[in-house]
Structure formats: C-alpha cells, structure tokens
C-alpha cells in the first residue's frame, strides 16, 4: 500500500506516482510527515544561525569602524586669530550698517513719495512697511554690535601675538629635525609606512607644544605643527 504525500490519496495497485498530481508515492504518510517536519526544523535552525552570524559580523564591522575612528588622530578646524576676527567683525559691522542706512533711506523716500519704485497701498502697507523697518533695524543692530565687539577683540590681539611669538620660538628651539626624528624612532614600528610615521611625528609635536603651553588654542597648535613639519621635511 502506498500514499500520495500531496493529495493524501491511498493506492493498493503498486503504482509509483499519483494518478492526480504525478507526485512520487510513499509507503507511510506518518513517516513522510515526520521527515518533512524534521527537515523544516533543520531549515529554521540554519536560518536562525545565519541571522545570528550576520548580526555578529555586522557588530564586528561596526566595532572596527568605531575603534578606527577613536584611534584616528583628530585634526582641529582651521585656526582663526584675534586679528582675523577683528577684520571679520569690522567688515561685518560696515556691511550691515551700510545696508541698514541705505535701506532706511530708500524706504523713507519711497514712503514719502520721493521715489516710486515700490508701491504699498491699502491696509497691507502698514504691515509691509513695518516688516521692512524691522529687518533694516535688525541689520543696524547687528552692525552696531559688531563695532562694539571690536574693542574687546583689539585688547586680545597684542596678548595673542606675543604668545604666538613665544610658541614659535619654542618650536624653533625644541622641535628641530633631529628631535622629531627621535619621536618617530621611539614610538613607531619599523614596518610603519610614511603616513603612519607622519601621524606619530605630528602627534608627538602637538603633545610637546600643548604641555609647554596648556592654554594654547588647539587650532593654532595644529597649524603650527603642519608648518614646522613642512619646513623640516618638505624637501624629502
């Protein structure tokens, strides 16, 4: 006696295939169902194992990227000196102030009928003029604030430039080529490439400057290190 596992039909004439669907017959539906259930469980287990492996691999990649970012030396943004800030604030002060003054003259002349470039009429004119005056007065306030900030910035220029002079003297005296070469010999591996040696040298130079001048702007430190490094290794 045989059975069709798909149609669940029973055959007693010794057929090998189902007359309805063509599926190969089995001797026992119970054994067939048990075998199929076992295969299904194995498939589920393999799928679950694959998911766990994918999670582990994804976690390893993420940890590796995170560790790489943590180990990568952080280069500070470009240094802006007090003198540069002074010039920037002065330029902003003049720009906003002149825009405000010219704008106010234009709006007043237009409102008084001296100019007829823009025509505001009806109840909406009050709102439109109010908005224009508000924007122009805001510009004027920004310009005045920029000018008021100049005196405070000016006080810090002399102090900063004196400190920069002292730091540059320190770099010239204590971070000569033979000293920087010593940093890379002590801290680097013989198998390191040029980029890795560069990072070792510049990191050591930044550390030396920061220890001597702990309150120094880190942007200036990075800029100075790059300048000194190019000076002593630029021709290599």
Helix and strand topology:
Blueprint: E1 2-3, E2 10-11, H1 29-71, H2 82-111, H3 124-174, H4 177-187, H5 194-212, H6 218-233
Antiparallel strand pairs: 1-2
Helix pairs in contact: 2-3, 4-5, 5-6
Question: What descriptors fit this protein?
Answer:
236 residues; mainly alpha; two-stranded antiparallel ribbon; 6 helices; 2 strands; flat
The largest beta-sheet arranges its strands as: 1-2
Strand content range:
under 5%
Count of extended strands: 2
Instruction: Report the average pLDDT across residues.
Output: 78
Uncertain stretches: 68-73
**How is the main sheet built?**
2 strands, antiparallel
Distance N to C terminus: 90 Å
How would you spell out the order of helices and strands?
EEHHHHHH
Helix and strand content put the structural class at mainly alpha
Instruction: Count every helix, treating DSSP H or I runs of 4 or more residues as helices.
Output: 6
As for the number of domains, it is 3
What would you call the shape? flat
Tell me the radius of gyration.
Answer: 39 Å
Helix content: over 70%
Describe the structure.
The chain is mainly α and about 240 residues long. It folds into 3 domains: about 1-65; about 80-155; about 175-235, no CATH class. Helix content is about 70%, strand content about 0%. It has 6 helices and 2 strands. Strands 1-2 form a two-stranded antiparallel ribbon. Helix 4 crosses helix 5. It is flat, with a radius of gyration of 39 Å. The protein starts with a strand and ends with a helix.
In short:
By secondary structure, the protein is mostly helical.
């Amino acid at each position: 006696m045989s059975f069709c596992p798909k149609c669940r039909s029973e055959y007693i004439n010794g057929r090998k295939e189902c007359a309805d669907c063509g599926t190969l017959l089995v001797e026992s539906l119970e054994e067939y169902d048990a075998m199929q259930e076992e295969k299904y469980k194995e498939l589920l287990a393999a799928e679950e194992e694959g998911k766990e492996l994918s999670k582990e691999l994804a976690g390893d990649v993420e940890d590796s990227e995170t560790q790489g970012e943590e180990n990568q030396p952080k280069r500070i943004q470009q240094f802006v000196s007090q003198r540069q800030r002074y010039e920037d604030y002065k330029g902003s002060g003049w720009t906003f102030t002149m825009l405000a003054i010219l704008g106010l003259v234009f709006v007043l002349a237009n409102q008084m009928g001296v100019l007829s470039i823009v025509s505001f009429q009806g109840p909406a004119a009050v709102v439109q003029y109010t908005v224009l005056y508000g924007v122009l007065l805001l510009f004027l306030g920004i310009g005045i604030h920029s000018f008021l900030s100049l005196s405070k910035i000016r006080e810090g220029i002399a102090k900063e430039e004196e400190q920069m002079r002292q730091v540059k003297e320190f770099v010239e005296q204590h971070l000569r080529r033979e000293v920087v070469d010593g940093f890379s010999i002590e801290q680097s591996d013989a198998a390191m490439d040029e980029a890795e040696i560069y990072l070792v040298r510049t990191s050591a130079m930044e550390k030396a400057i920061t220890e001597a001048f702990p309150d120094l702007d880190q942007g200036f430190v990075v800029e100075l290190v790059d300048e000194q490094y190019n000076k002593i290794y630029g021709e290599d």
